[in-house]
Amino acid sequence: MVKIVFVLAYLILAPFLGALLDGVDRIISARMQRRKGPSLLQPFYDLGKLFSKEMIAVNNVQLLLNLSYLVILMIAGCMLFYGADLLMVLFILSTADMFLIMAASSDSSPYANMGASREMLQMMAYEPLTLLIAVGFYLTTGSFQVSDIIRADTSAVLWMPGLLVGFMFTAAIKFRKSPFDLSTSHHAHQEMVKGLTTEMSGTTLAIMNIAEYYEMILLLGIFCLFFINSTWWSWIAAILICAVIFFMETLWDNISARVKWKTLLYSCWVVTLVAGGVNILILMLDK
Amino acid sequence: MIPWLIGIPAVLAVLFQFIRNEKARGYIVYAGAGIIMLTTVIFIVNWIDGGARTWMLYPETELIDHLMVAGDLFLMCLIIYLSVKYGKVLPIILSVVQTVLVLYTEFTADVKEGPHMLVDWLTILMCIIIAFIGGFICIYTVGYMKGYHNHHKEVKDRQPFFFSMLFLFLAAMFGLVLSQNLVWIYFFWEITSVISFLMIGYTRSEEAVNNSFCALWMNLLGGLGFAAAIALMAQLHGTLQLLEVVNIGALLPLMCLSLAGLTKSAQLPFSTWLLGAMVAPTPSSALLHSATMVKAGVYLLIRISPALEGNLVGIIVSSIGGLTFIMASMMAIAQNDAKKVLAFSTISNLGLIVACSGIGVEETVWAAVFLMIFHAVSKSMLFQSVGATENTLGSRDIENMHGLIITVPKLAYIMGIGIAGMYLAPFGMLISKWVALKSFVDSGNVVLVLFIAYGSATTMFYWTKWLAKLLCFHIPRQTVKDVTHKDEYVSMFFHAAVMLLLCLLLPMVAVWMVNPIIKDLFGNSTDVLSMSVLTTMAIMLVSIFIVPVAMFFISRRSHREIVPIYMNGINNGDNRFFMNSYGKNEHLYLSNWYLRFEFGRRHLRIPSIIMAAAVLVVGFCLVIGGVSW
């Protein structure tokens, strides 16, 4: 019963929460740049405007692929909040990303294609660490099931601090934050126009944005897993720490410039190996 | 029944030498493949009807043993003849040494007699793969070879020979998987080595000859390992039964057999031969990669896997497999030749299977068997579709497949299903990867866990960019006529249907096929796929098949206006040309990303070969030195 409530809450609240977080992110970014920034509800206005636009498209499949991206992401998120297998959640998450890549490359547009290629590279960069995170939870709590992980006696982060650091590092890719916003970003951009989303407009773009909100909440949910244990106050602590992590991602976004793809790939892989690999090794020796 | 299984393809192989009429040959191929499949089905029904118990057959085989001796000698003479003809020395040495070793052992050593053949679930699975996938590849070949010789006028038409080799290969594979006596397995093992050598050299160009000899010497080296294992088992333990090898678990014979398995399944440092095998016509690649040859290698490793658990040999085998998995998948990124990508992905996937069997516990072997099934189907399908595309487009460069979904939609769909089968969510590959990851963690091997984590990321990259290339909507420069023959489509549609069915019936395959295999090998079987995983599977199936279809209908209802794409210049209207800053029309050209300077073969090949060779040599030294683990 509780599980169903969680799933429903995710399905209904995630886009609102995501959009709110986006609004907060914009305000904080603006203040860091000594601007006032838009209002908190600006992402909602943006979405409303996108939906009101006339439907134009470059081909007939982009909308279909974008919708699939959204729905599959929702499925992944539901599985996480239902307490299902974490590894499966991650696999479905990357399947969803596949649909986004297909959507972007289906139009044969130079900028969208470039964005799609970069997105693939980004997937290659963060994928090893996400798998290692699942392995870390398995070693720590003895199960891949999210429902078992949250019932552990102590927070998983005590056993896997390296993995947390690594995840914070690579999560910038998923949040589409600088320095890792190679494929597309929240700001209008230069050398690649808008990357992945160059050819998306109106409803299609709105769907893509909503999907990103779902993904954001899903990722924050995985962050929460690091902290949640069987006690009730750990939930509050987890949410607070997630807020801090989100703030740090925003900060990092504002103080760093976009890197080249090689830096992205190698730094992610090295961080994965050093922070994640060593953490896993210690876990294996100890458990 | 067993003599029929081996005999029918062998007789057909002889028959093809005498049939020069193309049409008649086509009919006989269809009939032959049909008969082989039918015989296999009857055989399996018969076996299951008899209670599906393990059969041990043929304890007394004096006459056949002598025939095999003659066969071994014939193969040796053939190798010597061809090596002398082309001026190669290494194959002669290897072949003579191993043949002499085997014959000497056979005539001098005192071994206890035992059954020569064995039928259990693993054998049955292999028979199904050989008969059905192999059979349909033969059917595909009928159409393909017509197109091939239209394209390649410079190659001498030796189709009768080619078909003979195809069917003989099937016969040898049946023999190999049904045999239980080491000398018998060795005999069929050598036949497969020699046939693959002959098939790779089909075109007789200089490159083909060189590559075929490369394949020959590498496989003969494996054969030498096999021969050494036979000699050791006979002299030290007085038995030649494969089951006894597993039961006794002596390390050195296991190491020698593993060497044989590693060479045949093209693991590092021996993967060169499989890449070189690409010069042959596509059906032979499809056969080598999916139903036969490389499967023989992993079959042997799976057979001996229960003896590899937790010992030195197991560690060596699994590290080489893991290393091959990641290195080959990295090298695949830098390839734009479709067949090369497929070759690297075969090597890489086999690496995963080898790593699984090296760990040698129930879960990993379960994953290995599963991987083997899915790999056989989707690889065969991919090779066939690439071959057909090559005949149609005149090129097998992935760059030229831009927008294949518009130009040749049928082939694009088949290729897409094949690619999806290799790595996407609901398909079996991913499930096996999931099981493999879990059991690598359980076995406490951190290096393998890292290999699989990085390796699946690189695997994803090269498949995704290929898939994206296929699905680009782009008005083609010139219209393309699909010249694929009906025979080819028959086979490809069969494979696509099997792939989808396997995906839908995955739990059944697990319960009816894979679990009994594990039970045969280990004596007991735990249900690796638990119920919750099955529900997850169902969710994944829904998400891959139903969501896009539903979204198709939803999105079709919306009205929209189609506009040209943004080109950072004036789009000339049809998304193909744009006006550059000089006011000239420029053609848009989109290319994939190959990261040649980072993941190119030039950089990775030599280090990975050295690393794998070092592991192998050190392993042999430790085993011979008697270091216990």
Biggest sheet of chain B, strands in spatial order?
4-5-6
Oligomer: heterodimer
Discrete helix count of chain A: 10
**What gross morphology of chain B would you assign?**
globular
Uncertain runs of chain A with pLDDT below 50, 5 residues or more? none
Largest sheet of chain A: none
The chain-level structural class of chain B is mainly alpha
Give the N-terminus to C-terminus distance of chain A in angstroms: 33 Å
The count of β-strands of chain A is 1
How would you summarize what this structure contains?
The complex is a heterodimer of chains A (287) and B (629). Chain A is an all-alpha fold and 287 residues long.
Present the secondary structure layout.
The complex is a heterodimer of chains A (about 290) and B (about 625).
Chain A: H1 2-32, H2 42-52, E1 56-57, H3 62-82, H4 86-105, H5 110-141, H6 146-149, H7 161-174, H8 202-225, H9 233-255, H10 261-286
Chain B: H1 2-16, H2 22-49, E1 55-57, H3 62-86, H4 90-108, E2 117-119, H5 121-151, H6 159-178, H7 182-200, H8 206-237, H9 242-248, H10 251-264, H11 272-276, H12 282-291, H13 294-304, H14 312-333, H15 338-359, H16 362-393, H17 404-407, H18 409-423, H19 428-442, H20 446-470, H21 486-504, H22 506-522, H23 531-557, E3 561-562, E4 570-571, E5 577-579, E6 585-587, H24 596-599, H25 601-624
Antiparallel strand pairs in B: 1-2, 4-5, 5-6
Structure description:
The complex is a heterodimer of chains A (287) and B (629). Chain A is mainly alpha-helical and 287 residues long. Chain A contains ten helices and one strand; from the N terminus they run H-H-E-H-H-H-H-H-H-H-H. The radius of gyration of chain A is 19 Å and the shape is globular. The model of chain A has no long low-confidence stretch (mean pLDDT 90). Chain B has helices spanning 2-16, 22-49, 62-86, 90-108, 121-151, 159-178, 182-200, 206-237, 242-248, 251-264, 272-276, 282-291, 294-304, 312-333, 338-359, 362-393, 404-407, 409-423, 428-442, 446-470, 486-504, 506-522, 531-557, 596-599, 601-624; strands spanning 55-57, 117-119, 561-562, 570-571, 577-579, 585-587. In chain B, strand 4 and strand 5 form a beta hairpin. The radius of gyration of chain B is 25 Å and the shape is globular. Chain B contains 25 helices and six strands. Chain B has 629 residues and is mainly α. Chain B starts with a helix and ends in a 5-residue tail after the last helix. At the A-B interface, strand 1, helix 3, helix 4, helix 5 and helix 10 of A face helix 19, helix 20, helix 23 and strand 3 of B. Strand 1 of chain A pairs parallel with strand 3 of chain B, so a sheet runs across the interface.
